[in-house]
Amino acid sequence: MSDLLDGFYPYRTSSHTFTTIEDVGRDRAEVLAEVAAMADREDAMGRAGLVSGSLYSGDHEHYAYLAQVFALYAHANILQRDMSPSATKFEAEIVAMALDLLHGDPAAGACGVVTSGGSESLVTALFTYREQAVRERGVAVPNVVMPVTAHVALDKGAHWMGIEVRHAPLADDFRVDVAAMADLIDDQTICLVGSAGNYPHGLIDPIVELAALALDHGIGMHVDGCLGGFLLPWAEQLGYDLPRWDFRVPGVTSISADTHKYGYALKGTSTLLYSSPELRHNQYFTYPDWPGGLYLSPGLAGSRSGGLVASTWAALVTTGADAYRSAAAEIFATAAVIRAGVEATPGLEVIGDPTFLIAFKAAAQGPDGGDPVDIYLVNDALKEAGWRLNSLQLPPALHFCVTRPNTAPGLADRFVADLGRAVRYAADNRGTPAASGAMYGFGGTPQGNETINGLMVAVLDAMHAVAPTD
Ligand SMILES: Cc1ncc(COP(=O)(O)O)c(C=O)c1O
């Protein structure tokens, strides 16, 4: 436990620990310097372009500018729209721009909301479809049918709302098996979900087929474009041959697309877009009988900072389509180098047919023709070389989600060279337990899952420790 705490809370020993609000406040400049030092240290890996996903723009002038815009409204609570009419402008225009990008037609009723991030968008979408199913079809035991690769925030939301999740397996191309999705649907299914692209492998599910299935059953289809929503459309405009997945596809009734990922906004916003206002009404909550007054709320949040909607709007309008397209071109080109590098590395195998997020696993044979390498040992060696990839499981794999910081000249080639060395390290150290991703090995059996759940609870406790008072 102490090791875990040291890992998540190193500052408990290296800086002054506050456990009470002291009578006299600290010097502002001193506090700013302390926070700046922590931020600078923690940003180093991302600045160097060695991190998969997570940091999407990497342009610190852009961040500083957005922070200036944020500061103008940081204190404003946009719940009070009489005081913050600009928030209505910012949100309306963020939604309009997102709909335009994803071919939603406001004249036909397409609309949306701004949320705090991808997870809130997904959980809200589930809520919307559950409400719709209960109101319109009297569904009593709701279930949602989605690929195993759909984002786990949906599982979390379903858990919170008592919705059964029916996971469909993948086909040989690692996209969801449409026939398996069809088999899981019944009269209690509230909606189908597909991703563009999904978090584990970055692949776009067969949305055209899934949406047709949804139409056949008279249910909605949510596309999780949290990751790809602000990237894939620009790539399509550049001529990349991508399958259709947005509102042009008949049967797609909602899309989540995160502004705080490839929209290059500050962290804390996403869009949830609907094909009709009637569908959006399901997420509204109105309560006329509260002693506190008439309560009307579009979603989960109560008070919200005006800074986030203002700075997200500013990110979209100052970046502009040309810069989004050229960033997408660089990201796709960098990902192609990484994909080719993985394909050329004996002992590894690319998962599916990816474009911007390259997932790979151990091939059936190691680089020396022997047993497959342990992909988590590969990750250990990559970590040693400074890279931060994401570990996957079922099957064990790694992914590199390419973002702007990774597109710096030479970085992709450096990665490929480091990857070759990492695979040789894994081959030379077969049988050694890997330090990274080792927890995944426990999963898949009831006993293993119990152990790993216990470990995960301990990790959460360590991340949310109360500062020590001694
Ligand atoms: C496909 C996909 N959906 C949803 C999410 C969740 O987004 P957030 O972390 O903003 O809650 C992610 C995050 O990476 C994602 O990749």
Contiguous runs where pLDDT drops below 50 for at least 5 residues: none
CATH homologous superfamily heading of the largest domain: Type I PLP-dependent aspartate aminotransferase-like (Major domain)
**The CATH topology of the largest domain, please?**
Aspartate Aminotransferase, domain 2
Under the CATH scheme, the architecture of the largest domain is 3-Layer(aba) Sandwich
Word description of this protein:
- The protein has 2 domains: 1-20 and 43-52 and 344-470, Aspartate Aminotransferase, domain 1; 72-316, Type I PLP-dependent aspartate aminotransferase-like (Major domain) (Aspartate Aminotransferase, domain 2), CATH 3.40.640.
- Helix content is 44%, strand content 13%.
- The chain contains 15 helices and 13 strands.
- The strands form 3 sheets. A 7-stranded mixed beta sheet has the order 1-7-6-5-4-2-3, sandwiched between helices. A 4-stranded antiparallel beta sheet has the order 10-11-13-12.
- Helix 6 (118-137) crosses helix 7 (152-161) and helix 12 (306-343) packs across helix 14 (411-428).
- The two termini are 17 Å apart.
- The site of pyridoxal-5'-phosphate has 14 residues, from helix 6.
